[in-house]
Amino acid sequence: MPGTDILFVWDFLSTAVADAWPAADRLRWVHVASAGVDRLLFPELRDSDVVLTNSRGVFEESIAEYVLGLVIAFAKDLVGTVDAQRERRWHHRETERVVGRTALVVGSGPIGRAIARMLRAVGLRVAGVGRAARDGDPDFGTVYPFGSLTDRLPHADFVIAVAPLTEQTEGMFNATTLATMKPSARLINVGRGAHVVTDDLVRALEGGVIAGAALDVFEEEPLPASSPLWSMPNVLVSPHMSGDFVGWLPALAELFVDNFHRWRSGRPLRNVVDKKLGYVPTGAAAWTGATEEGATHAG
């Protein structure tokens, strides 16, 4: 850290930056290879003048494809088909349609928008929950304010959590909010594990409060082998991989390289995070760093 102007945080789950922060004597810019920045919003960085950027723009379409796959997997009982095949059991049954079903996307940023577009394309009715309410949105139709989440949950067949992790969104799916959902509804979490109170979700699934869940992120990662979520028949577990497509690592590196050249030439940086909000606001002003002549040491 001593003498470093720029820090590229490749391991977005690491807590090493907070531990090393006292040695940062000239740091000006931190870039993280993820869309989420909650691990970096410790008080010293958040309250400093150091600029934080993320990797928005890399994962949107891949996560949207993953969510579409989960919606179809639930509606068409693909897990049941695979299980029956393994047992060599001819198990004919009816499955659900997705056309006309309702999806509520909690998080109206770029990833939420990509999810909304993809679900609309296959015939779902989509609404969003975000920081600011609005009608006539090109992707969501209607975006409801976060404070109305519990009012909107009873209307949704699929609830997709993709919001940034903030004080407002932490634990937003708990015993109270889960109880407002349809008994036939499924919860899909591709946002942050802390969006969901795990013990409350387990009880809701065991008690038939909701019909199922697909979880790509968890309060504790890796998910402990002792977790009941692994063996629940109405749960799909994946290891924090919804955005990770073939070629994602080079794409992350290319985004940083582009931003580094911008910093060196004094051009505006992409994806500047509002450290008070915890994400990149739509239409946020960009930040200009050093010029080409400025001395730079990247860590």
Provide a compact summary of the structure.
This protein has 299 residues and is α/β, with parallel strands linked by helices.
Descriptive report:
27% of the residues lie in helices and 15% in strands. α3 packs across α5. The strands form 2 sheets. An 8-stranded mixed β-sheet has the order 6-7-5-4-8-9-10-11, with helices on one face. The protein folds into 2 domains: 114 residues, Rossmann fold (3-Layer(aba) Sandwich), CATH 3.40.50; 178 residues, Rossmann fold (3-Layer(aba) Sandwich), CATH 3.40.50.720. The radius of gyration is 21 Å and the shape is globular. It is built from 9 helices and 11 strands. The chain is of the alpha/beta class and 299 residues long.
Protein topology:
Blueprint: E1 6-9, H1 16-20, E2 29-32, H2 43-46, E3 51-53, H3 60-75, H4 78-86, E4 102-106, H5 110-121, E5 125-130, E6 134-137, E7 141-145, H6 149-152, E8 158-161, H7 175-178, E9 186-189, H8 198-206, E10 212-215, E11 235-237, H9 248-264
Parallel strand pairs: 1-2, 2-3, 4-5, 4-8, 5-7, 8-9, 9-10, 10-11
Antiparallel strand pairs: 6-7
Helix pairs in contact: 3-5
Keywords: NAD, Oxidoreductase
GO molecular function: NAD binding; oxidoreductase activity, acting on the CH-OH group of donors, NAD or NADP as acceptor
Family: Belongs to the D-isomer specific 2-hydroxyacid dehydrogenase family.
